[in-house]
Amino acid sequence: MDIVDLVKAVPIFSDLDDEEIKKVAEIGINQKFSKNGIVFLEDEEGAALFIIISGKVKIVRTDDDGGEVILSILGKGDFFGEMAILDGLPRSATVVSIDNSELFMIHRRDFLHLIERSPHVAVSLLRELTRRLRRSDGQIKSLSLKDAVGRVASVILQLADDTGKIKKGKVIIPDFPLQQDLANMAGTSRETISRTIHQFIREGLLEQQGNSLIIPNFDKFKNSYS
Ligand code: CMP
Predict the structure, then answer these.
(1) Pairing of strands 101-107, 48-54
(2) CA-to-CA distance for 149 and 85, rounded, in angstroms?
(3) Band of the pLDDT at 59, cuts 50, 70, 90?
(4) Per the count of CB atoms within 10 A, which of 99, 127, 177, 179 is most buried?
(5) For ligand 1, is residue 72 a contact (CB within 6 Å)?
């Protein structure tokens, strides 16, 4: 796929006409990151916005003792790095490439120009930021009000929403994250993740196939745990 097609496939740019898409393709540059490569660190100065062409990244915050909380996992077509660009403050989180990934980087000034010129891009950006705020509100509820089983279920529902593929009421989550990453999303231990997922599998609420996790009856799972 050439870069113009890639830009066209990015949701925040999808309403732009061909001429504008071409301009966006010209102002950005491609960057490759290997598995576990750091894209940038929390508190660095933010000079660019990134769009994921392929692969996945995790957005993390860490504490001084090496503890890590994963705020989100983003994949193809998603963007990140907009916060420091919009408010001029340091990066709010660290971004780490989970697989080998390819990113498209647009410099701060070029992206701000683009938003000023194109209300479509500005509205799409606001829509996605609103979606992330709703999701964060859900995470606050889950972390503060639910027990460990409920928190694990919430993380599975989030992943289903972000990366799952739905087919006849069944949701398949490909490349299901590692247990340690799940623990860092749910604010619990690896052991709890393992125990809870096995409990869900025994109850028939989940199935595991290689690296994929399957929710055979998504509505039932959602109604029980959201
Ligand atoms: P920035 O602060 O520039 O750098 C870290 C980026 O992580 C941030 O911009 C957002 O793009 C992204 N980010 C921060 N918090 C969240 C979140 N809760 N969900 C998804 N992405 C986030």
Answers:
(1) antiparallel
(2) 37
(3) very high
(4) 177
(5) yes
Element (DSSP H or E) covering residue 81: none
Q: From edge to edge, which strands make up the β-sheet containing 101-107? A: 29-33, 101-107, 48-54, 79-80
- Quick check: 1 pLDDT over 80? no
Place of tokens 């639910």: 146
Q: Is the dihedral of CA 171, 173, 178, 180 positive or negative?
A: negative
pLDDT at residue number 3: 81
Cα–Cα dist 204/85, whole Å: 45
Q: Give the residue, by CA position, lying nearest to ligand 1 atom 8.
A: 81
Q: Is 28 in the pocket of ligand 1 (CB under 6 A)?
A: no
> pLDDT digits over 164-208, tens only?
999 889 999 998 998 999 999 999 999 999 999 999 999 999 999
- Report the distance separating Cα 202 and Cα 188, nearest Å: 21
Angle (CA) 219-175-188 rounded to 5° is 70
